[in-house]
Input
Amino acid sequence: MIHEVEGDILLTKAQVIAHGVAANDPMKQGLALSLHECYPAMHKDFHHWCHQAHPEPGAALL
Output
């Protein structure tokens, strides 16, 4: 179920956070930057996946 909330999304107790970014996005601003800083392994995995899979628009890393 999806719930709208206000505040810092990184303080949520949700099991999943979804955020759309372009393939090979450097993640240097906004929520993407915060996710990059809090989850460096996710950032590394995302860029590895982009280089390996060459994702099409709308593709998702799960």
Summary: The chain is about 35% helix and 0% strand. The radius of gyration is 12 Å.
